[in-house]
Every structure is written in C-alpha cells, then in structure tokens.
Amino acid sequence: MVPKENQVDVAIVGGGIVSATLATMLAELRGDMRILVLERLGDVAEESSQAMNNAGTGHAANCELNYTPEKPDGSVDITKALNINASFEVSLQFWSHLVERGIIPAPSTFLNPCPHLSFVWGEANTRFLRTRQARLSGHPMFADMRITEDPAELKEWMPLIMEGREPGTPLAATRVDRGTDLDFGSLAHTMFTALKRRPGFRLEVNHDVQDLTREPYGLWRLKVADRKEGGHKEFTARFVFLGAGGGALPLLLKSGIPEADGYGGFPVSGQWLVCKNPSIVARHAAKVYGKATIGAPPMSVPHLDTRIIGESRALLFGPYAGFTTKYLKEGSYLDLPRSVKTTNLKPMLFAGLHNLDLTRYLIGQVLQSQEDRVKTLRDFIPTARLEDWDLEIAGQRVQIIKKDPKQGGKLEFGTEMVAAADGTLAALLGASPGASTCAATMVDLILKCFSESRTAEGQAIIRKMVPSHGHDLTKETDVLRAVRDRTNAVLGLR
C-alpha cells in the first residue's frame, strides 16, 4: 500500500525549466493540486537547464538559419520561423506574468537583452540571407530585421568577427535588436523556490524514477530509488509528466502506452570553446549564428554567443558535437542500448541508414584536436588565439527517432510531445527549441490533459498567464503589438 503522503495528483519527473513551467502553471490553474517533482540529481536544473549546458539563446527564429530552409527553387520557407517566434512570445508573456506576480524578483536574474545576428560568407550564402531577410521582414513579427553587406556596418555590428578578415569575400549579416540571452537554470531555481512555498507542492531531489506501471484502477505507480538515503519508495499519481530531458525516453518506453511505439533516441553530446578574457569578451555583445556544415545536425549550427551568468560574462563558440551512448550528461553508457526495444528497433536501424552523413560528421567531430576546433573558430574570429579559449563540455541532447511509413524510420530535429490517449501521461522528447518555447508547449499539454483548463474559469486563468491565449500571433498584428509592448516594458526588452 502506498502511503497517503505519497499519493499525488501530478507526478513530474525531472527538475528542469520545462518541469518548473508545468508545475507553476498547474499550481496557478488549481491551487489545491498535489504536485510532486522527482529529480535524480542533488539539485534542480543541473542537466540541460544548467547555464553552461545550453546556448542561452531565446530561440525566436531571429538568427537560427535552420528554421528557414531554402527550397530547391531558391525561395525560403518561413513557416517554422513564424511558429517558433509565436511560441517564444508565449514564454515572454508567461515570464512577464511571473515578474508582475513577484514570483520572479527581477527579470535581470535570468534574462538580458542581446542582439541576434545571422552571419554568412560566400556568394550563395549571401544570396540566401538576402532572400531570407526579405521574406521575414515582410511579416510583422520580423519587421525590425535589418540586413547589411557593408563592411563598415558589419564592423560596427560585430567588431571581433570583422577584425583581421581578408577583403574580397562576400559577407552579409542580419540583425534583430530584440533578442535575449537566457539563464534557464536561474529561472528554474527561482520558480521552484516559489513553488516550495505553496501548500500541496513537494520537491524530492536525489530521487531516481526507475519504473512506472499503470494500475488497474487508472493511477500510475512510480518506483523510485532514493540515491541519498538508499532503498526504494513508491508513489501513485493521476497524471505523470516525463520532463527529464534525455531521461524521458526510457521511461516513456517503460510506460507501455501505445503512443510510445516506434520512438527511439539518438544521443548527441556538445562541447563549447569558452573565452573569459575580459578584453576579448568586452568586444562582442551579440549572439551570432552561421550556417551548419553539410551533414551536421541543426543543434550544431556554429554560433558565437555572449553569455551572461549572474555577474560574469563570457563568450561561447560552438557547439562542437560528439557522441556518447549516454542520454543524460550524468547518465549511464548503457542508456542507448537499453532503450532499444522490439517496437523501435526497425525505426532506429533505418534512421541510422538514412543519416550516414551525420555519423561521419560525428566521427570527425570526436577526432578533432583543440587546434582543429580553433581553426573552425577562426571562420568567425580570424584573430582567435588558442590560449584564449578553453574547452568545456556542454549538455546532452537526444534527437527523436520515430516510425516513417516511407523510410521505415526517421531522425527528427526539434521537440515533440507524446501523450497517452486518455491524457494521464505525457513526455517531452527532443532538443532545441524546447526550453525557449516550453510555455506554449505546456499550455497545449494542460489543455489536452486537464479538463479544468477548458472551463470558462480555466480559460480565464490561462489568459492571465498568457494574454494572447486564443489568438494567432502570426496573423493578428494588433494582438502581437499589444503583447510585445507589455513584455518589452516588463522584461526590459528593446
């Protein structure tokens, strides 16, 4: 018999920003909801949400060129960029709500304005960037996106990148001043601190969820190892959310829900070159994204980032990809082999066969020396010196593998929600832009799985958290302008 104190309404696995967002929204939706968060490490936000484990970019499709693919005829598809920008606006609204409620003491604890730039070189890439800027700037969401090919203006926008660059090569950059640098770890800590003051909320760290099963009467039973005190505990919940980053997939497969059939995961690790030399850091104040090399996964798009973490500033370049069979940075080398099941073996094999370029790319990345990495850095900073940059390990990402009727299996880049048909369990899989857009994802999840959210009262509560709820920001210019005026004022954006 599960002790009464271990019987909850909602069990959330993982203590990162996505879980903090869901727990906060549910607590707002229904104040008496019993919510349990289980985190396997000794503190929250130590995996993908930890500041140095991610790029800190507020993904709004301002600068990420992989969100605007070029078609064979040379045109540019901006559909994904519009949807991501709209989702990020939902996050900004939700964070503004938390600031106004006093849950976040000041936006500067996790958010700093930081221009977003795209930078390319070569005739073909320059032509692509012109087309992209023309398409995006024609939409109200990106009306303030500027482009230049003038070396003098490029030097003004990104002096460190232009210093020592050989003349003659076509160069171009776009710029959106209303960009952000985000510390998701700090934000998650702040949200959990506020949650712990609420009755009915419980956070357990050093608690590793090892199994979950469906009870005959509808509840989920979770078997949990106490990594600090030893032994096991059991909990029951009416709803379970698997928000444990790469750790969500193995638990999703253990759940046995039909919707999980065919899902697999391909782990990709990351590394940064980090510069903390104040004289160099002071000369760059932007996030500058380039184009990915052929065969590279979208998460490996090269970029030079200003990072502001607390009172410290640094520059990050990368990410350099690597391969490990771990699904979490603090995971096990057995994560990948243990995730192979009869239900996903075929999709995983076919996805591998269709992505041999990615395999070759990862092998090349693993074999790189520090000198090789700095050589790539010099495409961005021609004057970069080896001694100014240190290698640091970034977070672990697990790309989605799923069934495909034509190919047998395919590798997906992005994030995806997998939910049981009865709405009692859901898991968030994949990588970028997950953290940046998780507020919109969690609203969708709540609407699907919690009937009280669909009542008139529930809808009113959601609109308090996200005033644009029920509107299409990609089409309703007046609503877009109104929410941006508010978030600009509350969060200190340009």
UniProtKB/TrEMBL annotation:
Catalytic activity: (S)-malate + a quinone = a quinol + oxaloacetate
Alphabetized UniProt keyword annotations: FAD, Flavoprotein, Oxidoreductase, Tricarboxylic acid cycle
Necessary cofactors: FAD
InterPro entries from the UniProt entry: FAD/NAD-bd_sf, MQO
Pathway(s) per entry: Carbohydrate metabolism; tricarboxylic acid cycle; oxaloacetate from (S)-malate (quinone route): step 1/1
Single biological process term from Gene Ontology: tricarboxylic acid cycle
Molecular function, one GO term: (S)-2-hydroxyglutarate dehydrogenase activity
Pfam families, A to Z: Mqo
Enzyme class: oxidoreductase
EC number: 1.1.5.4
Transmembrane segments: none
Similarity remark: Belongs to the MQO family.
Protein name: Probable malate:quinone oxidoreductase
